[in-house]
Amino acid sequence: MEKSGYGRDGIFRSLRPPLLLPKEPNLSMVSFLFRNIGSYPEKPALIDSDSDETLTFSQSKSTVIKLSHGFLKLGINKNDRVLIFAPNSIQFPLCFFAVTSIGAIATTANPIYTINELSKQVKDSNPKLVVTVPELFDKVKDFNLPVILLGPKRNRQPFDVKNVPKILSFHDLLDLAGDVKEFPHVSVKQTDTAALLYSSGTTGISKGVVLTHGNFIAAALMVTMDQELAGDMHRVFLCVLPMFHVFGLAVIVYSQLQKGNALVSMSKFDFGLLLKNVEKYKATHLWVVPPIVLAMAKQSIVKKFDLSSVREIGSGAAPLGKELMEECARNFPQAVVMQGFE
User: Fold this and answer.
1) Which residue of 154, 201, 202, 328 is most buried, as measured by CB atoms within 10 A?
2) Whole-angstrom Cα distance, residue 208 to residue 122?
3) Which helix or strand (DSSP H or E) is residue 278 part of?
């Protein structure tokens, strides 16, 4: 039986058909993201598990359009850097997409960073504006940068700090855009930088990693190729992995939204809450890391929830043993348990 593997020439070949990447040079990750939403404008796109707020694909696109104009009015232009320093929320990717849609570069940071750790990234990336949440404001207030505060509409300018040139809420930024229906006319190419993410620094100083618009598009097509082979189904991805990380941002958020899948955002990891959200939102896909797979295999609380909606459990970032995969699969009989790390 023929199977994927290495040939005599040392090249690995898959039995799957070749992946065709778009060749248009003037293609941004955001235009690619929304290319098909005319087929599902009212389908849920972003769901915030903390507030239960839900945005359809049409609403998400309209919000990103407004935010992109808002950023331009704040003086953010092509190749400027914007720091996103916040936990997961549905506002996080909306801001990220708005920044990249105008050719600016998003740099993301771990919300548990100390002021010293964050200062190093700010010095290296040189952002022109910070997007954060009120709970993290004290860590960014001394950078002498304008600040956008994510959160509910009531969170409007709760601070008055001399070192901060301007403080606006997420909703102020929307209002700043006015009544706009189309994205700004900014030339963005696949080869343009979309994001400047940073390595974890476990083996040395944290380093900036450049990702282009084309990188995001290619990754999204690779990650979702199996969905073409599996056929249509209603997919709901629970995103508990951090959006500041490439796994959460590119593999889960961007890749799945561009495919028309729903995304349920969790602001922090809590195992009981994760199980509750799987049951509540009928999540079909859980892409996690080995410690979460271990909990799903070992903890008795798993039996207290209806998890029958789950069809796929994917693990990455570290190896997953065969025995643990099999033990986890017994608690999720309808699901395929797999890993993307070897």
Assistant:
1) 328
2) 11
3) helix 271-281
Among residues 167, 188, 212, the one where a domain terminates is: 212
| Confidence (pLDDT) at 156 | 54
Is the domain of 135 the same as that of 199?
Answer: yes
| Residues 263, 252 contacting (CB under 8 angstroms) | yes
pLDDT score, position 229: 57
Distance CA 39, CA 276 (A): 31
pLDDT at 312: 95
Looking at residue 333, which CATH number applies to its domain? Answer: 3.40.50.980
Walking along the chain (342 residues) 10 residues at a time, the average pLDDT comes out as 78 83 97 96 97 97 99 98 99 99 98 96 98 96 95 65 79 94 97 95 84 98 79 84 96 96 97 98 95 95 96 89 93 91 60
Specify the DSSP element, H or E, that contains 323: helix 322-331
Q: What is the rounded distance in angstroms from the CA atom of residue 192 to the CA atom of residue 210? A: 10
The verdict on 62 and 207 lying in the same domain is: yes
Kind plus residue range of the DSSP H or E element containing 219:
helix 213-223
Nearest Cα to Cα of residue 150 among 83, 75, 61, 77 = 83
Token readout for 56 is 């359809």
Q: Residue 139, class by beta-carbon neighbours within 10 Å (0-12 exposed, 13-18 middle, 19+ buried)?
A: buried
Structure tokens given for 48 = 């915030």
Q: What is the DSSP letter of 314?
A: E
Residue partners of 115: CB distance under 8 A and separation at least 6: 139, 142
Torsion sign (Cα): 124, 127, 132, 137: positive
- Residues 215, 323: Cα–Cα separation, whole Å: 34
pLDDT at 230: 57
Could you tell me if 147 and 128 lie in one domain?
yes
pLDDT at 342: 56
The answer to the question of residue 12 being in a domain is no
| 182 and 112 assigned to the same domain | yes
Same domain, 160 and 228: no
Indicate whether 6 belongs to any domain. Answer: no
Question: Which pLDDT does position 155 carry in this prediction?
Answer: 58
Would 188 be classed as within a structural domain?
yes
